Amino acid sequence: MPYLSPALNVMTAAARKAGRPLIRDFGELENLQVSRKGPADFVTNADERTEKILVEELKKARPGYGFLAEEAGEIEGPDKTHRFIIDPIDGTTNFMHGIPQFCISIALEREGQVVSAVVFNPVSDEMFVAERGHGAFLNDKRLRVAQRSNLPDTLIASGAPFMGRDGQDLFLDELRMVINSTAGMRRLGSAALDLAWVAAGRFDAFWERHLRPWDIAAGLLLVKEAGGVVSDLDGRERMLETGDVLAANEALHRPLMDLLRKAKAGHSAA
Ligand code: IPD
Ligand code: CA
Ligand code: CA
């Protein structure tokens, strides 16, 4: 059985409550209202409604806590030591296209450190949870990262910078390096689920640049609690500040970082 702290209980209940109308929306995509935040960056009424439910539910249970929520931004609370970090739908593009690879991501930060994490895919009903020091779980099952240590055997996930974003050429150089050294790569379109899937051992590793705190705060704790190693692409633990992430098991983390560095060095020299 998963270890559910009182905070995790509150977070999973909020995710389930917000997940129900989200499944309904997913079944009626023709009614979805979509607006554009930037090039290829969309927000739907489902993102906004989901976030509203999550904030309301979490506020009810933890009235003093602050929030960093993708759509509403920073919401300060009187309790400066606790903050929820929320992505109401990670994988909005998938959601809009009827692809069931998206999730609700909620992390709880205590004194600047993420202590509880929930990543919930309402369509597959997969609830990934982690509590610092108590392991990571998928529904009732304890999670362990994959144990493969030989790069040519591995399946690696990543995210490509989309239209209007920097770093496309560097990404293509990194991608070339990775596909030439591993068994394959996937770009599934939800960074939070990519990390949850590393925790579950489905992917051997994940890297992506320029992510935002709400994409990764929960997923990073899932990987750590499943025995994996997480860092930015310089090997430091500044993922929430830099937005750059590499997550893998202990044996693969260093070789993958070296590979990505080699790609970057070749890119800078070109
Ligand atoms: C996006 C997803 C995607 C990643 C993008 C994110 P959103 O989040 O996590 O996998 O590549 O950089 O912006 O917009 O669907 O919440
Ligand atoms: Ca996101
Ligand atoms: Ca989002």
Helix content, binned percent: 25-40%
Strand sequence of the main sheet, in spatial order?
4-3-5-6-7-8-9-10
Low-confidence stretches: none
- In what range is the share of β-strand residues? 25-35%
List the helices and strands in order.
HEEHEEEHEEEEEEHEHEHEHEH
What is the gyration radius calculated from CA atoms?
18 Å
Instruction: Please count the beta strands (DSSP E, at least 2 residues each).
Output: 15
Corresponding CATH architecture of the largest domain: 2-Layer Sandwich
Q: The CATH topology of the largest domain is what?
A: Fructose-1,6-Bisphosphatase, Chain A, domain 1
User: Could you give a short account of the major beta sheet?
Assistant: 8 strands, mixed
Secondary-structure content class: alpha+beta
**What is the first-to-last residue Cα distance?**
52 Å
**The top level CATH class name of the largest domain:** Alpha Beta
Number of helices: 8
Q: Give the overall shape, derived from the CA principal axes.
A: globular
CATH superfamily of the largest domain: Fructose-1,6-Bisphosphatase, subunit A, domain 1
Give the rounded overall mean pLDDT.
95
Total domains: 2
The ligands bound in this entry are:
D-MYO-inositol-1-phosphate, calcium ion
